[in-house]
Automatic annotation (TrEMBL), chain A:
UniProt subunit comment: Homodimer.
Signal peptide: 1-22
PROSITE patterns: AA_TRANSFER_CLASS_1 (PS00105)
Reaction(s) this enzyme catalyzes, per UniProt: 3-sulfino-L-alanine + 2-oxoglutarate = 3-sulfinopyruvate + L-glutamate; L-cysteine + 2-oxoglutarate = 2-oxo-3-sulfanylpropanoate + L-glutamate; (2S)-2-aminobutanoate + 2-oxoglutarate = 2-oxobutanoate + L-glutamate; L-aspartate + 2-oxoglutarate = oxaloacetate + L-glutamate
Full protein name: Aspartate aminotransferase
GO-annotated cellular components: cytosol
Entry coiled-coil feature ranges: none
Similarity section: Belongs to the class-I pyridoxal-phosphate-dependent aminotransferase family.
InterPro entries referenced in this protein's UniProt entry, alphabetically: Aminotransferase_I/II_large, Asp_trans, NHTrfase_class1_PyrdxlP-BS, PyrdxlP-dep_Trfase, PyrdxlP-dep_Trfase_major, PyrdxlP-dep_Trfase_small
Keyword Acyltransferase appears in the UniProt entry: no
Organism encoding this protein: Cairina moschata (Muscovy duck)
Record PANTHER family: ASPARTATE AMINOTRANSFERASE (PTHR11879), ASPARTATE AMINOTRANSFERASE, CYTOPLASMIC (PTHR11879:SF3)
TrEMBL record, chain B:
Annotated EC: 2.6.1.1
Catalytic reaction annotation: L-aspartate + 2-oxoglutarate = oxaloacetate + L-glutamate
Record's protein name: Aspartate aminotransferase
Leader sequence residues: none
Family: Belongs to the class-I pyridoxal-phosphate-dependent aminotransferase family.
Enzyme class: transferase
């Protein structure tokens, strides 16, 4: 069983231990103990960190209940460790369910018009000069991934010539690993990294980043995280963004923003969109792939939007007409449920206010967990500096734990995190903060 | 301080008063060379229809079912499933990359049949796809990456307009085999068999499982048997597109007969399914892609590769449509109700075919319109030429695709007379 689905269903981990010959994975569902088939475990070690593998002999079982914390989850969790459907989303869903006038007809290829316009407005701002000048376009997409893919497919066909697969595409080091695959599968041959994370100082390697941009061939495409960088949680400051924009303008580099956490990072939609809006005000033509998975909690409805900002309406129109052709052979037209929920919410002043409130609830809980974790580590006197925990922003934090320390956390403390030391702050709760802080303290002091 | 002024064709650089190099963008766009794409040949018809102000206008373009009042029809079993979903207040967590397991399993069983050896042995993998298009595209990408024997996909002549760009964008090449005989408005079986016999071994051949789109012309079972034997002899990879199961004859088992027969003959097909029409779930994008494998272990390996293809496309599929379909397929009373409703839709269309033919006779048309009732499914290949289609659009506000294909689902007892009259006017 895959890590994510195993951990999602696990309410606690039962470790059955006895000397024997057969290895087996054990986990507890909500309704009892399940023993999964031996084939899921390769002998000798756990198939994935998350499911513990033990020798199993039918004669003698010793039951141990082990506490565990999942800091690898990729979605928001409440303080009870549960998924959270935003109250405004529940409300709108019931409205939609009760509306007998709605049907399931095809959406247009580019998506639900009210969704597209409002989704782009959220990213660019009500007073965006680009919107006023009618030089923006939107493509409703299957999540942020779908928006990235449509954008990538378009760029491969029409950017820097036609069908120029050699245009370098730069992704941050590190980045969300799917960025590479999206652009490779879209046909680009040359994916490169730009310096981003400085492990030594646990912050942004601005100079490295700017140097890479100076050296990049003209017209290279740069994937920029609009806010709440995944996986480091480290964003450029406004001043740093200004420096980045200046170099990109001078070197004719194309900005492709990935905006998966607007509102979720700081709690403020406008603040989290600052970088995108700054680039627009500087006259860039750009793409922005938006996801509503996190900030609306609509993960499985696949709600995303590709915002296109161009020089003028005519150019944008032609771009959209070509994006239509790409959409038509990928999914024909997008799913309606999630777009309806978002459009209904964004077009009602009351629901919009409720949504912003829900978003702030999530962002505030994350901010609280950050400050609580940091203060505990500092109180414990854990070696090192821990201000990066609160300096970083969004769902993820690069703790700075090295692979050995991560292994300790997983094996000895049953706290699951990425080998990179990345944790999802949403996995922290008031109930497990102490345990996690103590465990990090142990890991850092015992393992170097 | 002297700074080099960058001479570039795209920009103008100037020194500002604070001695920083600043650039302004040129007025030209990155996109000045991007051509205006033509409107989609099928979906573009609806867009043109919407702009028309004629009260008598008819949209016979896209294949979306309408009731006898010309209104979209939300199936009762769908409404019930939706009510069940709303009451459960479930979470919105990501689906696995391969989709909702209850849905994919039920989808495979629907296509293969519950008694299918391939189904029972687990030697198949089914992943959720974005309706028919998305499922076709996953399959096309999979074949491009893993079916190294050939780059050629053989489509019937004609085929659904979107097949060609889907396979092309996936990196494959398109070829054709004879299928439709315009002289008889029916299957050119001899031509098809002749062409198929000459297809190079290990090429890919696409077959419409039932209710061929756009012609409505399906092989009879004896003809399917011969085709199966031939593709087996030629060692072709068979790709079935099944977008109308239940919708063609009104009987889901009958409509899946060809798919099941091929598998029983030992042909390990790949298959794309859509729930857009047969469950009326158009905009919810419920579909599935299946690969029949040698064994369950091979199926696992294929599944892992399909997921690697899906992840950079859209990460994981949308839940809503798949959940509705899954509840219907897996809840006995709802499944029964669905079968009745799907038959109801198929029957209404069969009724409209009959009425259209009798109305054409009434108009005094001397042509042979038998193909209208011989053909099956949502579409009818009228045999109208592009100029005649153009007149129908311009003079009568009756919208259809250029190839003369009409969606019978858009015909009602209220407008069948007008349609017959218009067709007679442009063909007499």
């Amino acid at each position: 069983m895959r890590l994510n689905s195993c951990l999602r269903q696990c309410l606690g981990l039962l470790v059955l231990r006895h000397a024997g010959t057969a290895w087996c994975c054990l986990f507890q569902h909500g309704h009892g103990v399940c023993v999964c088939a031996p084939v899921l475990c390769s002998s000798g070690h756990a198939p994935e960190s998350g499911c513990r593998c033990v020798h199993l002999d039918q004669s003698l079982w010793v039951l141990l209940v082990v506490r565990k914390v999942n800091l690898g989850v990729g979605a928001y969790r409440t303080d009870e460790g549960q998924p959270w459907v935003l109250p405004v989303v529940r409300k709108v869903e019931q409205m939609i369910a009760g509306d007998g006038k709605l049907n399931h007809e095809y959406l247009p290829i580019l998506g639900l018009p009210e969704f597209r316009a409002n989704a782009s407005r959220i990213a660019l701002g009500d007073d965006s000069p680009a919107i006023k000048e009618n030089r923006i376009g939107s493509v409703q997409s299957l999540g942020g991934t779908g928006a990235l893919r449509i954008g990538a497919e378009f760029l491969r066909r029409w950017y820097n010539g036609t069908n120029n697969t050699a245009t370098p595409v730069y992704v941050s080091s590190p980045t969300w690993e799917n960025h590479n695959s999206v652009f490779l599968d879209a046909g680009f041959k040359d994916i490169r990294t730009y310096h981003y994370w400085d492990a030594a100082k646990r912050g942004l390697d601005l100079q490295g980043l700017l140097d890479d941009m100076e050296k990049a061939p003209e017209f290279s495409i740069f994937i920029l995280h609009a806010c709440a960088h995944n996986p480091t949680g480290t964003d450029p400051t406004p001043d740093q963004w200004k420096q980045i924009a200046a170099v990109m303008k001078r070197r004719f580099l194309f900005p492709f923003f990935d905006s998966a956490y607007q509102g979720f990072a700081s709690g403020s939609l406008d603040k989290d969109a600052w970088a995108v809006r700054y680039f627009v005000s500087e006259g860039f033509e750009l793409f922005c792939a938006q996801s509503f998975s996190k900030n609306f909690g609509l993960y499985n409805e696949r709600v995303g939007n590709l915002t296109v900002v161009g020089k003028d309406a005519d150019n944008v129109q032609r771009v959209l007409s070509q994006m239509e052709k790409i959409v038509r052979t990928t999914w024909s037209n997008p799913p309606s449920q999630g777009a309806r929920i978002v459009a209904t919410t964004l077009t009602s002043p009351q629901l919009f206010a409720e949504w912003k409130d829900n978003v702030k609830t999530m962002a505030d809980r994350v901010l609280l967990m950050r400050s609580e974790l940091r203060s505990r580590l500092e109180s414990l006197g854990t070696p090192g500096t821990w201000n990066h925990i609160t300096d970083q922003i969004g769902m993820f934090s690069f703790t700075g734990l090295n692979p050995k320390q991560v292994e300790y956390m997983i094996k000895e403390k049953h706290i699951y995190l990425m080998a990179s030391g990345r944790i999802n702050m949403c996995g922290l709760t008031t109930k497990n903060l102490d345990y996690v802080a103590k465990s990090i303290h142990e890991a850092v002091t015992k393992i170097q | 301080m002297s700074l080099p002024c960058l001479e570039v064709t795209r920009g103008v650089c100037a020194l500002s008063s604070s001695l920083t190099l600043s650039c302004s963008f040129p007025s030209s766009s990155w996109w000045s060379h991007v051509e205006m794409g033509p409107p989609d040949p099928i979906l573009g018809v609806t867009e043109a229809f919407k702009r028309d102000t004629n009260s008598k206008k008819m949209n016979l373009g896209v294949g979306a079912y309408r009731d006898d009042n010309g209104k979209p029809y939300v199936l009762s079993c769908v409404r019930k499933a939706e009510a069940m979903i709303a009451s459960k207040k479930m979470d919105k967590e990501y689906l696995p990359i391969g989709g909702l397991a209850d849905f994919t399993r039920a989808s495979a069983e629907l296509a293969l049949g519950e008694n299918s050896e391939a189904f029972k042995s687990g030697r198949y993998v089914t992943v959720q796809g974005i309706s028919g298009t998305g499922s076709l595209r996953i399959g096309a990408n999979f074949l491009q990456r893993f079916f190294k024997s050939s780059r050629d996909v053989y489509l019937p002549k004609p085929s659904w307009g979107n097949h060609t760009p889907i396979f092309r964008d996936a990196g494959l090449q398109l070829q054709a085999y004879r299928y439709y005989d315009p002289k008889t408005c029916s299957l050119d079986f001899a031509g098809a068999m002749d062409d198929i016999s000459k297809i190079p071994e290990k090429s890919i051949i696409l077959l419409h499982a039932c209710a061929h789109n756009p012609t409505g012309v399906d092989p009879r079972q004896e003809q399917w048997k011969e085709m199966a034997a031939m593709v087996k002899k030629r060692n072709l990879l068979v790709y079935f597109d099944m977008a109308y199961q239940g919708f063609a004859s009104g009987d889901i088992n009958r409509d899946a007969w060809a798919v099941r027969h091929f598998i029983e003959q030992g042909i390990n097909i790949v298959l794309s399914q859509s729930y857009a029409k047969n469950m009326g779930l158009y905009g919810e994008r419920a579909g599935a892609f299946t690969v029949i494998c040698s064994d369950a272990e091979e199926a696992k390996r294929v599944e892992s590769q399909l997921k690697i293809l899906i992840r950079p496309m859209y990460s994981n599929p949308p839940l809503n449509g798949a959940r509705i379909a899954s509840i219907i397929l897996n809840t006995p009373e709802l499944r029964k109700e669905w079968l009745v409703e799907v038959k109801g839709m198929a029957d209404r269309i069969i009724g409209m075919r009959t009425q259209l033919v009798s109305n054409l006779k009434k108009e005094g048309s001397s042509h042979n319109w038998q193909h209208i009732t011989d053909q099956i499914g949502m579409f009818c290949f009228t045999g109208l030429k592009p100029e005649q289609v153009e007149r129908l659009i311009k003079e009568f506000s009756i919208y259809m695709t250029k190839d003369g294909r009409i969606s019978m689902a858009g015909v009602t007892s209220g407008n069948v007379g007008y349609l017959a009259h218009a067709i007679h006017q442009v063909t007499k």
